[in-house]
Structure to design on (575 residues):
């Protein structure tokens, strides 16, 4: 500028400046990633080195250890019989979205890009080989629907990055379970999932809140290892309900136990010498001070008599171990 | 014109350098671990035993190795477990070494011992771990129950990122038990820990701790287990209890 008169810059100079500026912008964008750029995509193999049986073959009947459930949940759980899953309308009730937290399956995580802008629109978390529907974690800032909106097996989930951690909040879940032996989860439950990646290891922490069946939030974790050879299907077969027992076609026939009649209410507790209150869970049972109540009431069984090597990954033939792998 | 392009490239290169690199210019000393902490893990924390309850909250039956990928050699040791012998040998704390302790039903009290050492106390067995930051080496030191733990901060990248991870590598462990019922780990064990802070929707805070235990003697593959601790407002429930070989 000279004498107050803006002199147009030569055309070439403008173009170069713009190119340089664009180059700087592009370079910076590539060199300093947004915090939302931890790549979670891939096939993740479940490690299952804790809760091996519960996640694998399944938990014992009436084993509610470690669950901060209330009396309502306990009563409902003790009325449960797996025969109920043979009903057409209840055959898929185990496969709500929180199934991720107690199932043995590998998971597949896909990044869903907006086809126009290229932005990350969502992350989709599938469970390879499971009946569970994929969890779609919307990253585009959309609001959760009205509380009165339909609840589905997919729930409704939105996500945000907190540093390198993806935090996903799920609402609109259907009534389901929180353990595969009938411990119920209400349709008012919400679930917060934290995805934390360290190298090839991914830990998923779920914090379930349920005003109907939990005395306090339930925190659970599972770990996965990146597996480029997983060959897990990207989409899941949906749960296909059908009636397995002809007798269930009769109207009003719902397999259940009336209060006080469950023959296995104390089976698990007896097998492992546990006081019944310990076996049946509750918030107080998950904290160290609960051990004081156990000291005089618990002695370990003399020897392990069942599932001593666990399930699946603990295959004794493959590992060279000689131990009891099965049980009743 | 060239000046503009040069300065643009120079700016881009400078800005793209990791913060740690630019901080080292001018011979500036890196900040002490305490000052550099991207997360605050100090305070009182309580283990939430919501996984593996039957193996963590109480002593399981002898010979119950479920979930741990042990070797046949480990099975032999575990099958010979005798808590009376451990007591007689003054080894009641064998399940309270770092690999067993961090999954125990315990409270933790975490404080800074000095500017480069985090002290992790556990009321369960009254144990203390020291997590040393920096290039510390202790040649010739004897293996111990809690071993030697080297710590570092892993800060998070990205625009607007906050937080980080405490990474700890522990070696020089005296042999002990992964589980109260005598499932062993050897002196060759290493343990890697990733400590992350998790903020809950109701304002509660948790430590999510990923443990990776490797033992070429007694494990067929790494034992990888996450555990979690919930923050408590104070030490009102802190309850030091001595080691027990049985319960």
């Amino acid at each position: 500028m000279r004498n107050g008169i803006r002199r147009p810059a030569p055309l070439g100079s403008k173009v170069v400046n713009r190119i340089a500026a664009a180059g700087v912008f592009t370079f910076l964008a590539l060199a300093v990633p947004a915090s939302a750029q931890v790549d979670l995509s891939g096939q993740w193999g479940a490690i299952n080195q804790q809760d091996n049986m519960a996640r694998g073959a399944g938990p014992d009947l009436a084993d509610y250890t470690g669950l901060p459930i209330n009396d309502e949940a306990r009563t409902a759980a003790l009325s449960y019989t797996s025969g109920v899953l043979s009903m057409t309308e209840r055959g898929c009730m185990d496969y709500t979205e929180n199934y991720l937290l107690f199932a043995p399956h590998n998971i597949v995580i896909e990044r869903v890009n907006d086809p126009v802008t290229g932005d990350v629109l969502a992350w989709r978390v599938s469970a390879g080989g499971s009946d569970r529907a994929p969890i779609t974690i919307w990253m585009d800032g959309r609001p959760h629907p009205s509380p009165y909106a339909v609840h589905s097996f997919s729930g409704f989930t939105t996500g945000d990055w907190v540093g390198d951690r993806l935090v996903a909040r799920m609402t609109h879940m259907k009534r389901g379970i929180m353990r595969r032996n009938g411990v119920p989860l209400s349709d008012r439950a919400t679930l917060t999932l934290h995805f934390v990646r360290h190298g090839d290891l991914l830990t998923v922490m779920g914090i379930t809140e349920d005003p109907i069946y939990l005395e306090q939030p339930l925190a659970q974790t599972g770990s996965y290892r990146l597996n480029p050879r997983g060959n897990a299907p990207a989409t899941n077969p949906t749960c296909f309900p059908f009636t397995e027992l002809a007798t269930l076609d009769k109207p009003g026939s719902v397999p259940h136990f009336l209060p006080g009649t469950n023959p296995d209410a104390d089976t698990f507790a007896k097998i492992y010498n546990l006081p019944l209150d310990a076996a049946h869970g509750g918030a107080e049972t998950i904290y160290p001070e609960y051990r004081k109540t156990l000291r005089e009431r618990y002695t370990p069984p003399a020897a392990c008599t069942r599932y001593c090597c666990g399930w699946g990954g603990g295959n004794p033939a493959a590992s060279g171990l000689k131990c009891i792998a099965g049980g009743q | 014109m060239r000046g503009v392009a040069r300065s643009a490239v120079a700016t881009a290169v400078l800005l793209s350098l990791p913060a740690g690199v630019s901080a080292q210019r001018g011979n500036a000393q890196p900040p002490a671990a305490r000052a550099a902490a991207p997360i605050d893990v100090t305070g009182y924390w309580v283990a939430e035993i919501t996984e593996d309850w039957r193996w963590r909250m109480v002593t399981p039956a002898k010979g119950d190795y479920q979930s741990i990928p042990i070797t046949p050699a480990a099975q032999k040791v575990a099958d010979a477990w005798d808590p009376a012998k451990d007591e007689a040998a003054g080894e009641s704390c064998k399940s309270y070494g770092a690999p067993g302790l961090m999954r125990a039903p315990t409270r933790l009290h975490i404080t800074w011992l000095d500017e480069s050492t985090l002290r992790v106390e556990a009321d369960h067995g009254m144990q203390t771990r020291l997590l040393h930051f920096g290039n510390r080496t202790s040649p010739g030191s004897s293996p111990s129950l809690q071993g030697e733990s080297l710590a570092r901060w892993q800060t998070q990248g990205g625009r607007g990122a906050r937080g980080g991870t405490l990474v700890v590598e522990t070696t020089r462990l005296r042999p002990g038990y992964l589980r109260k019922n005598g499932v062993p780990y050897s002196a060759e064990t290493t343990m890697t820990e990733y400590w992350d802070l998790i903020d809950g929707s109701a304002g509660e805070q948790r430590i999510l701790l990923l443990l990776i235990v490797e033992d070429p003697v007694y494990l067929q593959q790494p034992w990888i287990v996450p555990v979690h601790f919930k923050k408590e407002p104070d030490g009102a429930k802190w309850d030091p209890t001595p080691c027990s070989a049985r319960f």
Observations:
- Chain A touches chain B through 82 residues (CB under 8 Å).
- Chain A is about 15% helix and 20% strand.
- The longest strand of chain A covers residues 190-198.
- Residues 1-16, 23-35 of chain A have pLDDT under 50 and may be disordered.
